[in-house]
Amino acid sequence: MTLTWTDWQAIAVPLVLAIGAVAVLLIDAFWRSATVQLRHTVVTLLTGAVILFGLVFVWAQRDDFKPAFCRPVVEGPAECSLVFEPLTAGLWGVLLIGGLGVVGLSAYRLLSADIPVGEYHFLLLSALVGATTLAGARDLATVVIGLEVVSLPSFALVALRRDRRGSEAALKAFLVSVLSTAVMLFGISYLYGVTGSLHLVTIANRLTGLDPDMKRVAFAAGLFVVVGFAFKIAAVPFHAWLPDTYVGAPVEVTAFLAVVSKSAGVAGLLVLVVTGIAPDGSDLRLVIAILAAVTMTVGNLAALRQREAVRLLAWSSIGQVGFLLAPLAVGDAQAVVGYLAAYVIVTLGAFGAVAVVQRHRPAGLLSDYRGMVRSEPGLAVALIFFLVVLAGLPPGLAGLFTKFAAFQAVIDGHLGWLAIVMAVNVMIGLAVYLRWVAELFLLPADDPFSVDIETPAVVMVSLFTAAAVVVSVLPSTLFALAT
Amino acid sequence: MNAILLGILALPMLAALALWALPITLGDRLAALYGAVVSGLVLVGSVLLWQRTEGWFAYSELQPVQQLGPNARPLDAVTDVPWIPPLNVRFHIGVDSISVPLIILTALLTFLCCIYSLKITPRIGRMRSLIALLLVIEAGVIGAFSAMDLVLFFVCFEIVLIPMWLIIDIWGDDHDPAGRKRAATTFVLMTVFGSALMLLGFLLVYRQAGTFDLVQLTNSPVLGGHGIPLVAALLVAVGLAVKVPLWPLHIWLPDAHAKAPTVGSVILAGILLKLGTYGLIRILVPVLPDATVTIAPYLGGFSTVAIIAGSLACLGQTDLKRLIAYSSVGHMGFVGLGIASLSDAGMKGALFANIAHGIITGLLFFVAGAIKDRHDTSDLRTIGRALYARLPRIGALLTFACLASLGLPGLAGFWGEMLVLLGAYDPSAALPQATFRVFMVVAGLGTVLTAAYFLRLIRNLCQGDPAENPASAFAVDLSRIELITWSPLVVLTVLLGVWPGLLLHQWGIL
């Protein structure tokens, strides 16, 4: 038994989230005397409070360094399994904001749907526990555990809608998740075999000293790990499951998949790239760069052809992942976290707006949005703003500057060809979102969308809009998350 | 001074937001009046920025002007605050003798468009949004003309895209919804691609120099004519050339102009194209001087091809607005050639032609829009001939604008092109002299072609037997609002024609 030490503050957030998850489940199960309405409110508030605690904690401790589950090593730095450092703070901030947003979105749709409130919030919080663990993980075992704890609740959430589409979507997500875990474990076992350690710091140290033959094995092992993550974040060519799953799930769960689940995958990959298996100049980074180029191109091109709002968002989220992978391929954590933050906020907003429209027009076609700028100006303006941020054009300065940072990272990393591919994709991406914006602006329509929007929806969409405006006016806040 | 500049940047932007906040029931005329008042204030502010300063390529904020020698160009109305520290981006604006005339041109054309919209509106209405978008474009363009930070320039450059896309897509030619949608999308996508390439160039500059600040970059430019600086210069030049537009990147332009509403065409041709040439003069030449020398012959070559190709395309046009659009390609070719010559005369010619083109083509598109409104088509064959008999005043104004545009001495169009030819005759010593002499000769032929197609236009449209081309029932001649809107442009055309020194002295002594 080796001596280990832990700064318990480092795991305070995942711990509190886990306790919250259990508490939510218990309240829902044992407090049967209360009305559904009341239970829903209490559960939502409790979930929100737990996540808010996490955010406050992250904000208060953002400059600190707190290791957990560490043990000394004879030579070299201590090996820790979980570390809270500024990068972790940035990723946790993004993940928690995403979780809070999903909770907010769920507040105005769930009651009418036939979905158990307690389980839903339990699964959400559990996934957040996994996501935060993954973002702080510094050894491969913790990475796998974190990833599994994100994934298992994810397809349970997808399956909450008990119809044929929901089951199919859940099954797809499940199979892909299992497959990706298998592939990743295979890679990890080789990495362990080559380096004799699971700790990222040690692996990084030993990788540099390998002889060429073993280097090739290590490259293959790293490739398997990257492919495992590529399934998770739906990078092309491992993306086929995503559009059907997104469409099959309830909109809030889709938002969860697009925001929390995807961010967790990106966070895990980022941790691996910057701390361990893909040091500067390795072939793995080139693989990620190629993955980025293919992902953004295929995602955007496919999005161009979509006629349903959610499918368009699904494909364009693949394109956005491509843009996220680009700075990741050069290990620029600041650009990745900034991009992720902007993406999370506006994706939540876009799904929030889509949820409002889809509630009344279940078909969810783009043409359902025609003329909304006149018939439903508030919602239309908010949606246009989110889309423009996703496209990265003024007035959506948050999107523009995060894309800018991605470009800068790629240029500084001497990947000129990737920068050109990105430039082409800025153009294609703009074409994707402008199709939607054009529908919103078109006048006249026979039957433009116009309803009394529920107050919680108004509040949430306004909040997302306000957040998007703030990060557009002060883009430096996005990059302050991980310095 | 800097309060004025900040004011004319913020006022149109805030006014546009306020306009959208007003109720939809706001009348079209009231919206136009609101726009006219706001843009009128901006015009007054921009004129106040005008001062008599002389100088060329060197800025100074830290040192007194005298220490930089005769080539110093002081910067006025400076505001310089950090904006995004993690990316090293600053909000740095200021104006000098190059930007002020362009800012005034922007303010003037926007003001005239708003005045014009008081009476003459696109059929679809929705003036509230149209005016608001015009104001947003105005703010964006003024921002680009005063930006002293590469990233800020890029942002302002992009601000105008979506508003212009909407203007073409919504208020464009109502006979051809599919066509106007395609035109708008082509415009916005090509420009975005160009600006993304330009951004790559900026980032390469940043990697070399470690700053986005134009003043610092101008005072200590990125030297070297090969390798990274050359790639950066190519990216910046191509990105801006899409906007200029330089042949063969001009393919978005004819459709965009032909389908845009009158005010859209005026803004697009009169102001937005200038962003490209301004960027070339402000950024490419001073920041990447050696690399510019390397690519200047190619820039000059493509510009010369643009002059000829634009003129030949004009000879084949049967659509009035497309013809004027193609003539812009030719005129902007002259501007490009002047910049490529890298000589004092060529640069001044380019700057002068820039302004002159904005005024004259603005007038041309106004007149063309008036003719199109009266005949409900801009097809020359359908409009018929004998405009002198049917619409004598409008016909006369069209002739005046055509003559100014073809470079008749005594009108504004002449001086710019003459100086450009002079510059091409005697280019910077670092450039191949013989090549530029050839360009000069070919460009000289281009002026002849320009004269040919404009005279052919006048002959085919204005002259002819009135008996064969009876007047349309509703075709009234020049209305009062048109007179009011166009007369400043006519006056300026004559004024700059007889007194070019008004602008040329701004830029130093020849």
From TrEMBL, chain A:
It comes from Kribbella antibiotica. Belongs to the complex I subunit 2 family. The gene is nuoN. Its main location: membrane. Residues 137-428 form the NADH:quinone oxidoreductase/Mrp antiporter transmembrane domain. It is an enzyme of class 7 (translocase). It is a multi-pass membrane protein. One of its GO terms (cellular component) is plasma membrane. It catalyses: a quinone + NADH + 5 H(+)(in) = a quinol + NAD(+) + 4 H(+)(out). One of its GO terms (molecular function) is NADH dehydrogenase (ubiquinone) activity. One of its GO terms (biological process) is ATP synthesis coupled electron transport. This is NADH-quinone oxidoreductase subunit N. NDH-1 shuttles electrons from NADH, via FMN and iron-sulfur (Fe-S) centers, to quinones in the respiratory chain. The immediate electron acceptor for the enzyme in this species is believed to be a menaquinone. Couples the redox reaction to proton translocation (for every two electrons transferred, four hydrogen ions are translocated across the cytoplasmic membrane), and thus conserves the redox energy in a proton gradient. HAMAP family: NDH1_NuoN_1. Keywords: Cell membrane, Membrane, NAD, Quinone, Translocase, Transmembrane, Transmembrane helix, Transport.
UniProtKB/TrEMBL annotation, chain B:
Its EC number is 1.6.5.-. The keyword Protein transport does not apply. This is NADH-quinone oxidoreductase subunit M. One of its GO terms (biological process) is ATP synthesis coupled electron transport. The chain crosses the membrane at residues 6-24, 31-50, 98-118, 130-146, 152-171, 183-206, 226-246, 266-289, 295-316, 323-343, 349-371, 391-415, 435-455, 489-509. It is an enzyme of class 1 (oxidoreductase). It is found in: Endomembrane system; Membrane. It is a multi-pass membrane protein. Keywords: Membrane, Oxidoreductase, Transmembrane, Transmembrane helix. NCBIfam families: NDH_I_M. Belongs to the complex I subunit 4 family. It comes from the Bacteria. Signal peptide: none annotated. GO terms for molecular function: NADH dehydrogenase (ubiquinone) activity; NADH dehydrogenase activity; ubiquinone binding. GO terms for cellular component: endomembrane system; membrane. Residues 147-429 form the NADH:quinone oxidoreductase/Mrp antiporter transmembrane domain.
